[in-house]
Structures are given as structure tokens and as C-alpha cells.
Amino acid sequence: MIKEIPRKASSGYSIIPILLLAQVASAYFTITALMGQKFLMAALLLVVTVVVFACWFGFFMVQPKTGRVLQLFGTYVGTASDSGLRWANPLFSKTPVSLRVRNFESSQLKVNDNSGSPIEIAAVVVWEVVDTAEAIFEVDDYEDYVNIQSEAALRNMAISYPYDQHEEGEIALRSHPQEISSALKKEVQDRLGKAGVNVIEARISHLAYAPEIASAMLRRQQASAVIAARSKVVEGAVGMVEMALGQLSERSIVDLDDERKAAMVSNLLVVLCSDDSAQPIVNAGSIY
Q1: Does the pTM of the predicted model rise above 0.70?
Q2: What is the arithmetic mean of pLDDT over 246-275?
Q3: Which range has the worst mean pLDDT, 28-32, 172-176, 246-250?
């Protein structure tokens, strides 16, 4: 693998006066040689003038957080990353590579989760180039490579976990966002590392059941929520009934036999567990 080689390019501001002086001097001496009919000397000085003129094409700009990959006839010679006006051999090709932090949002992929349920999922990947040589030479188009491999990693991660948690301690896509983000980041980094890319963050941006089963899954979730709520209500109602019977007996307010205790428990449970407010019937006469 080709690794990045940092290369210090000369400051363009210091090269400008040198080239100006060399250009003026070479032109002056060339004209002087021609006027003195020293044609061989004039030819040599003309070559020098052309070479100095060609050196003006060695200037290039390096933006902040940008690297320039330098190549000489197809051979990698280094990466210049110092910002500002720089100068290097005019024969070098200077390919710019952005080192800024970028993000990529995948399209909504339709996959089957670990339990076989079709789901829709999308993710956001925040990344940056950390090795310009690998980004340019190890893959054909590193930006396209990031896009395709991120979606492939997302698809592979989605089929490894269920959408909902079915067992205690099981990691699920919907209920464990931190664990899923860590797993997705590792999956993406393993694929993009060879392209000189560092994954800063990867997280799910969209997660839902596929439309064909969304209504059925919604009813299941609603039923689970109702069952959980009912269980909590019944648990609380039983505790209140137990407390009421205990305090009536402890304070000797009324002496109830088993049959009337059962009737009282039934009435209290109906009142406490009912969805609607109870409408009591007041009996002004004897209870017998």
C-alpha cells in the first residue's frame, strides 16, 4: 500500500522575486548576446530564458485543510499540505484532496432484520481523509467508494440485529441507539480504512418497518403497550384493595365475612381498573 509522504513545498512568495530577477537577467543577456552576434551564447541564454519562464507554472495554491498530491511522470513524490501560495517543480502534477470533515447520508435501504422482518433504514456517516496517498491511489474514486461501502456496511449491520428487543439483554436497532451506532461505525471503518478515510461518526437517521407490515407491527406494539399498562393498573389496584382491607380490619371499622370481602374486592377492582369513571349507586337502606 502507498502511504502518504509529507512534502514541504517552497513558499511562493520567496520564489517570485528570484524568478523575476532570473527572468529579467536571462532576457537581458540574451538580447545583449544577439546584439553582439554571439549566436551560440544567445541560444544557450534563450534556453535558460525558456526554462525560467516554465518555472512560473510551478506556482499553486493550497487551501486550508487541503492537500496536494504531487506526482512526477506517474510517480508519487509526496503531499503538500501547508496552506498558502506554494511552488514546486512545474513538471509535477498537483491533485487536490480535501481534508475537511464531510458527511454522507445513505438512501433508504429496504432489508430484512435479524428476525426476517422487512425494514427501511438509512444512516449518516461523518468522515474525513487522513491519508491522501491511499485516497488517490488505493481506490479509483474515494468519494464514490465511501458512498457505496457505507451503504453496504449499513445493510450488513441491519441484518445482524432485530428491529425490536425480543429477549432480555438483546441488542435491537430501535432500543439500543448507542450500541448500534458503535457497531455501524466499526463496520464502516473496516471497509473504508484502505481508502485512507477515518470515520468520525456513524448513526442511523431513519428506521421504520416496511410499508407492507407497518400496520401489523403497529397493532402489535399497541397491544404490547396496552398489556403493559393494564398490568401496571392491575398491580396498583390489587395493592390498593389489600391496603383498604387491611386498614378496615386493623381499625375495626367494619367486620366483613368472606363473602362480603369478595364482593368488596370485586367492586373495588371494577372501580380502579375501569377505563371510564365509575358511577356509584348509593344505597340509603340496609345492606342486608
Answers
A1: no
A2: 69
A3: 246-250
Q: Which three cell numbers stand for residue 16?
A: 517570485
Q: Which domain holds residue 218?
A: 214-273
- Kindly state whether residues 178 and 252 are assigned to the same domain: no
- Here the CATH number for the domain that contains residue 124 is 3.30.479.30
Strand order in the sheet with 59-62: 10-11, 84-87, 59-62
pLDDT digits 0-9 by tens, 53-68: 999 999 999 999 999 9
Per this entry, what is the length of the chain? 288
> Domains in the chain: how many in total?
3
Identify residue 127 by its one-letter amino acid code.
W
What are the Cα distances from residue 135, in Å, to 78, 88, 95, 194?
13, 22, 11, 8
Cα–Cα dist 160/157, whole Å: 5
Q: Is residue 151 part of a domain?
A: yes
In a domain, 141, yes or no: yes
Looking at 36-40, 84-88, 196-200, 256-260, which range is the least confident one?
A: 256-260
* Residues 166, 172: Cα–Cα separation, whole Å: 8
